[in-house]
Specification:
Structural class: mainly beta
Distance between the termini: 83 Å
Number of strands: 10
Order of helices and strands: HHEEEEEEEEEE
Oligomer: single chain
Largest sheet: 8 strands, antiparallel, barrel
Strand content: over 45%
């Protein structure tokens, strides 16, 4: 009887051992790619992602400038020509506009230069292209067109009285833009401007045309969409 029980128990144990199948443990998937992607996205969301972005740009700028008001066409009242001196002075202003979430800025600008004897005002449409394929230093080009006038004096001093002026300006410039943090960037450009002014005074009226050179240093604040790629 005891021997039979031992034989039965041994047979059942052997059957259990034979029927047991040990499945291999699943192999863990490599996590290198997801980790790298997560790191890239985290970098884009960090404050120091080196690519300017944003839909709304606010820019303030200042720099030295020089202005020769009749370089290309001098004053002519009743057959009498006069030449205005070339003067140097600071220029400052601001711009506001949109970059449409990309590298091209379109907005409105205001600039004012102080040349001591008079001031030069320019305002109009400003356009910029920022070449963002270079991540830390973006080459930029800019162009603007707008209204121009002198006030608080005139380029010819006391030889003209009761003078009113108005005209147009065209500007082209090249430079670089450097992202500081995600929402702030610094830019510097060298600008050349053609200025044509109509002067009207007691002595008569005449057009003059000249040029302005300037170095612009700008601090730009970027808003709305700055965390998008």
């Amino acid at each position: 009887m005891v021997a039979g029980l031992l034989v039965f128990g041994g047979t059942a144990s052997a059957q259990e051992e034979v029927g047991t199948v040990h499945e291999p443990e699943p192999t863990a998937e490599p996590a290198a790619a997801p980790a790298a992607e997560a790191s890239k996205e985290e970098k884009k969301r960090g404050p120091y992602y080196r690519k300017v972005q944003g839909w709304l740009w606010l820019e303030g700028f200042a720099g030295p400038s020089s202005f020769d008001p009749d370089q290309f066409g001098s004053l002519d009242f009743a057959g009498t020509n006069q030449n205005a001196p070339r003067l140097k002075g600071p220029e400052y202003g601001f711009a506001i506009g949109t970059a449409f979430g990309g590298p091209f800025f379109l907005g409105w600008f205001y600039r004012q230069a102080d040349y001591g004897d008079y001031k030069l005002l320019k305002t109009g449409i400003d356009m910029q292209g920022n070449l963002r394929f270079i991540p830390y230093v973006h080459p930029i080009f800019r162009a603007s067109i707008g209204y121009a006038k002198t006030f608080n004096g005139n380029p010819y001093g006391s030889s003209l009285t009761n003078v009113d002026s108005g005209g147009v300006s065209f500007t082209g410039g090249l430079g670089v833009r450097i992202p500081i943090v995600r929402w702030i960037s610094f830019a510097t450009t060298f600008d050349w401007t053609f200025v044509a002014l109509s002067l009207r005074g007691d002595e008569g009226s005449s057009w003059i045309s000249g040029q302005q050179f300037g170095a612009t240093f700008a601090l730009t604040f970027h808003f709305i969409g700055v965390r998008r790629n």
